[in-house]
């Protein structure tokens, strides 16, 4: 390695260390987080790690601190969906829609809940409305989520909507509306407005 490369790498390493240390100090000194912020961040981490009971406890704590905290309402609904508690999840998705009716991810996630409950017409309506609000929902989870959690991209809201639309157009005896293995692979959507 030549001298110039060594100096550049050394300076880069020092800059990264200084910035990292500065950020850690800034976060440590921040004393006035929003009500429920700490519990909400803990819930998001628990959800990402698949610790759904812990996530539910932390979302509950965040909502006790701030009952209008929309990201905690959505997080609680997504967690209930992952735990298979679909009726409860729909209730919380409804709460989120009541507060922020134009947020496409909530409709997409409620559609997933309806889909898993076998309420396919309602699922299709929510998928189509989510796509109407923002066709970017059709992209599915972001590349970082796919990199960390998935081997191949899961079915998207657009894929599932197309499939349901085609199946619902068939005579009832020919329909195949549920494919448990593929349906279970569908990921929930987490976006910030």
From TrEMBL:
Swiss-Prot/TrEMBL keywords: Membrane, Repeat, TPR repeat, Transmembrane, Transmembrane helix
Gene3D superfamilies in the record: Tetratricopeptide repeat domain
Keyword Membrane tagged: yes
InterPro entries noted in UniProt: TPR-like_helical_dom_sf (IPR011990), TPR_rpt (IPR019734), Ycf3/AcsC/BcsC/TPR_MFPF (IPR051685)
Protein's UniProt keywords contain Membrane: yes
Region feature Disordered, mapped onto this chain: 174-193
Pfam families: TPR_1, TPR_19
Name this polypeptide is given: TPR repeat-containing protein
Organism name: Alkalilimnicola ehrlichii (strain ATCC BAA-1101 / DSM 17681 / MLHE-1)
Taxonomic lineage: Bacteria, Pseudomonadati, Pseudomonadota, Gammaproteobacteria, Chromatiales
